[in-house]
Every structure is written in structure tokens, then in C-alpha cells.
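TASK: fixed-backbone design
INPUT:
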């Protein structure tokens, strides 16, 4: 069970696509920094995230910093910093995508 942490916007990088190609259904994906743009339900990547079978999370502070707090995030679970730490304890290894 790997925790994949993605920080690049899917509009500016292929990291999300590469991650989804190797991730397993038992893995989790955490969207941080500009990667939270993929969490918006209306985004073109939302369907891919939903179909991936992964548990998908987005960091609340990054959602708020980008003015996306009122947007629908569909099946992406918004988490705080403490929950981020809990994910790092629950999943091993951790793969960062930059």
C-alpha cells in the first residue's frame, strides 16, 4: 500500500498520468500544492481519479490557498495536516511525484 504524493498541476505536468499508470487499487493518492486543481469535480482529470480505484485526498490548506474551497471535489476527500501525517503512518512506502 503506497501513498503517492503529487504536487504538480495536471495542466502543467504529466506526473498525474504517470502516477495513475503505476498505482494499484490498494494505494492512496494525496494531492498537494498545485495538484489540488485535479480535485475539482468539473476538471477533466476528475473522472480518471474516480475510475482509478484509489483513495484520493487533497490537502485543505492548499485547496483554500488557491480559492477552491467552495468548489465541488466529488469523491476526493479533503484532509487537514494531522490527517496527512496519519496517511504517512498508514501507508508505506511513500512515493513523491515532482
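OUTPUT:
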Amino acid at each position: 500500500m503506497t501513498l503517492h504524493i503529487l504536487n504538480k498541476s495536471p495542466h502543467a505536468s504529466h506526473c498525474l498520468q504517470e502516477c495513475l499508470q503505476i498505482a494499484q487499487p490498494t494505494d492512496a493518492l494525496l494531492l498537494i500544492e498545485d495538484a489540488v486543481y485535479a480535485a475539482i469535480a468539473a476538471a477533466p482529470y476528475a473522472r480518471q481519479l474516480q475510475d482509478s480505484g484509489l483513495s484520493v485526498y487533497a490537502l485543505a490548506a492548499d485547496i483554500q490557498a488557491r480559492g477552491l474551497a467552495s468548489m465541488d471535489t466529488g469523491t476526493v476527500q479533503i484532509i487537514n495536516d494531522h490527517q496527512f501525517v496519519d496517511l504517512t503512518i498508514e501507508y508505506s512506502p511513500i512515493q513523491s511525484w515532482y
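COMMENT: The helical segments are 15-22, 46-51, 60-65, 81-90.
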